[in-house]
Amino acid sequence: MEFDQALQTFIMESRELLEAMEESLLGLESSPDDPDSPDNRDAIGAIFRSAHTIKGSGGLFGLDGIVAFTHVVENVLDRVRGGEVPVDGDLVALLLSCRDHIGMLVEQIAVDAAAQPDKETEATGIMLLNQLKAYQAGAKGTAPAVTGARVQSQAPVITTLPSGGTVESDNWHISLRFSHDVLRNGMDPLAFIRYLDNMGKIVHVVTLPDAMPLVPDMDPESCYLGFEIDFHGDNVGKATIEGVFEFVRDDCTLRILPPHSRIEEYIQLINELSEDKIRLGDLLVNSGSLTRKELDEALCLQALSAESCREKSPTQDICQLGEILVKQGMVQPELVDAALGKQKVAKENKVQESKLIRIQADKLDQLINLVGEMVIAGAATSLLAQRTRDPALHEATSTLSRLVEEIRDSALQLRMVQIGETFSRFNRVVRDVSKEIGKEIGLSIGGAETELDKSVVEKIGDPLMHLVRNSMDHGIEKAEIRRQRGKPAKGTVHLNAYHESGSIVVEVGDDGGGLNRDRILAKALEKGLVTANQTLSDQDVYGLIFEAGFSTAEAVTNLSGRGVGMDVVRRNIEALRGTVEIDSREGAGATVRIRLPLTLAIIDGFLLGVGSASYVVPLDMVMECIELDDAERQETRESNYINLRGTVLPFIRLRDQFRELGKAGRRENIVVVQYAGQKAGLVVDELMGEFQTVIKPLGKLFGNLKGVSGSTILGSGEVALILDVPALIQRAVSKEAQLLAYGL
Amino acid sequence: MTISIEASNGVCHARVAGEMTIYHAAEMKGELLPCIDCGAEVEIDLSEVSEMDTAGFQLLLLAKREAAKAGKSLRLVAHSPATLEVLDLFNMASYFGDPVMMPRAVH
Amino acid sequence: MAKTVMIVDDSASLRQVVGIALRSAGYDVIEGCDGKDALSKLTGQKVHLVISDVNMPNMDGITFVKNLKQIPAYKFTPVIMLTTESQEGKKQEGQSAGAKAWVVKPFQPAQMLAAVSKLVMP
Question: Structure pTM?
C-alpha cells in the first residue's frame, strides 16, 4: 500500500520533471547559438537533473525499463553538459523524442505498475537508443591516447579550448610533498608523475629539492622531493587526480586545486546539487571540488582545533570547516562561499517547502461543494433572522454571512491557478507543428500570470489547441507570401489572457492573412446558413465559421483530417458558460477571443423578481438599474428600446421572455447589463439586491434552453434561474437590428 | 651499477653504468660525492645508465648542490634515454644547466 | 626495456587474464601459483612489481611479502595486494608487511592495468 503511494508520487514527480525537461529543451532550441551562455548551461543542467532523478528514483521501484533507457539518455546529457557533445537542432529533437518516450513508459507504469511496454513503445525505445549511440562515449576520440613519445618544451604549453579563449591558467594545480619513506615502500614519485602525464598533459613541473639535508644526514633511500605540477586534463575530476596518488595517499601531502574555469563549474554544480544534503563538506564533496579524503582530513583538523580551543579558552569559537579548507589549500575560497550560499538557500527552501501542501483535487472540490451548501444554508438563516425582527439575531447572522463570504472567496482562491502553465505547453505544439507544416512560426505569450479556476484551465486546453493549430495551418501564410506582403517571414501566434468584468478573456491571435469575409459569406450561403438578403456585420460573418458543418475549401485540409471543427470549439467553450468571437483584419491577422466565467462554482449574483419568480444575473455584468415611471411604461409598451441618455438601449421584458403569468407589478425597473462591449436592458418587476449564488448546473434536459445558464437555491428554499446574459443581450440586440432593418 | 672514475687535467670524469636506482643508492652516494673533491670540475657521464629512479635522480641533485657549495662546476654529459626521460619529467634539465645531447646509442 | 611484473595467485584463470592484460600493455609477466612457488622463481632477476593474492595454499600472501622484503634484490619492489571488500584487516596486515598498494577483488583487467601503471610504466 505504502509502496503504491510512493509509486504515485514517483509518477507525479516524473511528469513534473518531464515537463521541466521539455521546457528547458525548447529553451535550448530557441537559442542554440551560444552553448556556453549561462541560460543554456542552466537549461542543460536542468535537463540532465531531470533525467538523472527519474533514473535514480526509477531504480528504487525496480522499473528497469525506465532506468535502462534513462541511463543512456543521462549519459548523453552528461556529455552535453561536459561540452563534449555540441547542442544542435537534431540533438534537441532526439532528446525531445526521448523525453516523450520516458513519458510514455511512465504513463504505462501509471496504468499498471507491473506493465511491460507494448511492442510499439519497445520499438520506439530501441530506435531511440540506436540514435543516441552516435552521441555516446563510445567514440573514444577524445580520450587521451597513450603514447610513449612525449614532446617536451620548457615553456608552458598554451592550449586552446573550443570556446576560443586561450586558457593558460586552465590547469589543475597539484602540490605534492612526499614523506621520506615513500621510496623504501617501493613507491616511486616518478611513476605517479608518469601516470599523470599519460592521463592528460603535464604542462609544467617544478621540482623542489630544498628539503634535502646536508650530506651526512641525507639518507639516499629517503625521498626529500616536493613537486608543484600544472596539469591539463580533459574530463578529469579532482577525485580522478587524487586516484593517481591512491597508493601513496598516506605517504604524501597532496593538494589539488582546480583550474579557474572549473571554479565556475563547481560553483554551478554546488548550486545545482539536490538540497537534501546541506552540510558544507557534503556540498563540496558532491560537487567534486573536494574529495572525501580531504574532507576527512579537514574534519580531523577541526576536531583537533576544537580540542585545543577548549583547553585554552572555552569561550573561543572553534575553527569553521570552511576556514580550515581554505587555509589548508584544499579548496578555493570562492567555492566555500558558493557552498555557504547554497546552504543558506537550501535552508530557506526547506522552510518554503514545508509551506506547500499537495492535496488531492477531489478533496478541494468537496470543500467547494460544502462551502456552496453553507452559502445556501447561510442565506436561509439570514432570511429567518430577518423575519424574527430580532436585531441581535439579525446582527449575528450578518456577521456570519460576511464570514461565509470570506470563506467562499478563500476556498475559491484555492482553486485558482495561473494560465501560464497551460500556455507554455504550446511552445512545444507550435514548434512541432511549424516543423510539420514547414512554416517558421514563433509563439508569444502574454498575461501568463492571469488566474482562473483550475477546472476551467483543464477544459480549455483542447479548444486552445484547436485554435492554435488553426492559426498555424490557415492563418499564417507561407513565407513567400508573407514577404510579398511586407511582413517578416517568421509568423507569430499570440496567446494572451486578462480579466474583464468578471470574466477571463483568453485570446489566440496570429499575424497571418486574416479571415476572408467574402469567401465565408459565399460558403455560408451555399450551406444555407444565411440567406442572401440578410444584412450581416463583420462579426456575424466571422462568427459563421463556428457553425456546425462550416468549412471553407481551404480549411478542409488538416482540420477535417483531425475530425474536429470550429463548431466543437464553440460547443466546448459554451459548455463552460463562455463565449467565443473573432476579430479579423484582412492581411493583418485574426484574433479569437474566448470569454469565460472566472469560476464555475459560486458567483456574486444580483437577484431580480418577475411576478412570483426570481432570477439571478452575475453582479459583474450589471451596469445600472433604472426605474421606469408610468409615462415611460406607456411609451415602451410597444417598442423594444429606450433612449438612455442619448443612446439606444434595446431591452427584453423578462415577463414576456419567460411567459410569466400574473399581473404586472406596480413598478417596473430596467437592469442594464453589459457583456463583451454590448449593453441591453432587462425589464423586471423587483430589484432584490445582491445575492451569493451557488451555481447548480441545469440537467441535460434543459441543455437547449435559451437564456438560462443554470439555477440556484434561495435561502427560502425556492429555486431561482440564473440568466444567460450574453445570450439575452444577443437576442435583444439582434431583435432591434432586425426591426431597424425592416424600417421600423 | 658501476661507477668508474678518472681524473685528468683537473677534471674528474665519473661514468655511471647500469641502474641508478634505490637498490644502489647507498653505494652510489658513497662513490659519487668523493668525485667532487678529486678535481676542479666534475663531469658525470650518464650514457650507460639503463634505468634511473627518484633515488638515483636525487643523488645527482645532491652532487650538483655539493659541487656548487664547493665552488666547482658539475656537468652531466651524454645522457642516456632513461636519464633524459627523468630529467624531462622533473623539468630539471635547466637546473643542471648542461647542454642536453641526443643519446649516442638507442637502447 | 620492458618492465617485469610477477603475478602470484592460486587461480590459473586469474593469472591468465591478468597476464594477457599486462603483456598486451607491454609488460613482461612471470607467474607464481602460491607464495612458495613464487619465491622459488625469484632468483635475483629484475622484477619491477609483484601482484599477490592473500589466500593461497602452501604460503599465503602476507608471509610471501614478508619473505620477499627480506631478499635484497626485492627489498624495494612494490607489491600490489589483491584483497576483497571484506578483508579490510588483511589490507592493513599486507601494508605492514610491505604491500603498500592494493586492488579489490573482483576487478576488471583495466582496473588492474591502471593500478600497475601507477606504480610502473611499461
Answer: 0.44
